[in-house]
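Re: beginner question about structure tokens

> Can someone show what the tokenized structure looks like for a real chain? I only ever see the sequence side.

Sure, here's an example I had lying around. Input first:
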Amino acid sequence: MAEKKSSGAQKGTMKKVLKYVGRHGFFMVLSIILAAVTVALTLYTPILIGDAIDLIVDRGNVDFDGIFKLLLKIGIIVGATALIQWLMNMINNRITYHIVRDIRNEAFRKIEILPLKYIDAHSSGEIVNRIISDADQFADGLLMGFTQLFTGVVTILGTLLFLISISWKITLVVVIITPLSLFIAKFIAGRTYRMFKLQSETRGEQTAFIDEMIGNQKVVQAFSHEDEALEKFDEINERLAKCSLDATFYSSLTNPSTRFVNGVVYAGVALSGALMCIATRGAVNPFTVGQLSCCLSYANQYTKPFNEISGVVTELQNALACAARLFELIEEEPQIPEPKDAEVIEDAKGNVSLDNVSFSYSSDRRLIENLSLSVKPGQRIAIVGPTGCGKTTIINLLMRFYDVNGGAIYVEGTDIRNITRDSLRSSYGMVLQETWLKSGTVRENIAMGKPEATDEEIVSAAKASHAHGFIKRLPNGYDTVIAEDGGNLSQGQKQLLCIARVMLCLPPMLILDEATSSIDTRTEVKIQEAFARLMKGRTSFIVAHRLSTIREADVILVMKDGHIIEQGNHEQLLERKGFYYRLYNSQFAV
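And the corresponding structure tokens:
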């Protein structure tokens, strides 16, 4: 049952690969034609060699002029064959790497439109492994397939035709014995696909683990977790070694098995041809030694592609297993597409409302239920509550990183599911507790949301966020190249750059999720002043654990277990002496 399922998956993957191959039809046809010409010239050479042997009749009876002409002809044919083969390999390389380029492009484009729940459920290392390592493995197998499979098949067909033209009896011997190698190759190949797929999956798991450990090396060392990490890596590495050895062992059986069958074919041709030479000696049309030499050469050339094709089949199993993982990514369900008549918000005022919203990340665990909220333009809405109560989830829903399970969210009276994602998200300025900076200059990172910004605008935004001072102290100022995720900056400096990024865009609505969590107290006071100026006239959603930062909020929403349990301004909530009162006093009580 498992073998049938594996075979079906293999065929499905092959069909998908062939669709990509079909895009390069002209070069495919050209490659096949060149393969046919290469094979024809290669197979014509043994005939000339056989003719040259037949010109050596006896001592003193050798046609040297005829032999010289034949050798010159052979030399020209061999040179032309090498040139055509080089051209064919160039074309095959072009087809292969263009196909892999297209698949990688589609895979990366799919990542851009995948719902965040997929990204959250899969490690970044595993996804990277699919696009990089699996694509490389696929390219290697595909290139070998183009280079050897076409030539091998054409060689087999061409050799049979040449053999038939010399002797149909010897051809019959070859055709009867040869199918054995095909059965052996098919038997082994059917079992190696699953092993290669397991190898590819384990390699992805290993890449994900390495990425996780390197990205969090400080934490690993801080908690002396090195030994446990090594043990885990050794365990994954051991599994990868085992499944790789199993896949390689079974696939390596193909070549010696087919070589044995090919040896039997060669021996059969030699024996039957020698008997024919003896039997037809003295006849009108005898079977000559030159013809026997030609048949042996053809038998060798006929069986050689089976060895190559068996190797190709092995590589193709690995390639198809890797391709299957790539296609799994490409065929993942994308985020819900926008309606064709989706509205573009160009000048949002800041009217936001949540109508009976329900949402959960998993069906077995409820999070937000029947949440309703109405926000007027210019209001500052603070969201507080214990960890896991749904504060950041509301931000995810407002930005439409996730879609609600029930109810609706409206911006300017329009359901955000009927608004284009680009225009919705460009209406918000967002600063998160988790900073993200790309590898590039400081200037490029600040201007990410507004690439056309002038130098004056960028500097002004940096000054407003109090980032200008430390930027000027960097080696090249605004042109300083920072490492991936700002690795050569402090956490506070990275957060200041993220704040500057928002200051530059000046969107109509703001989302601040612990935006000053990594900044010193003195700078935080200045940033809060800058935010106060920035938020004036703009609808703002502020998620905060430090309640001192939200005293000036117009409305404070107190959340617990996905519900708003209290609502009001700072003074009103303190007077009620409820959950907010206890939460506030827990931070400021002496």
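Each token stands for a local structural state, so reading them left to right follows the chain. The first strand starts at residue 56 and ends at 58.
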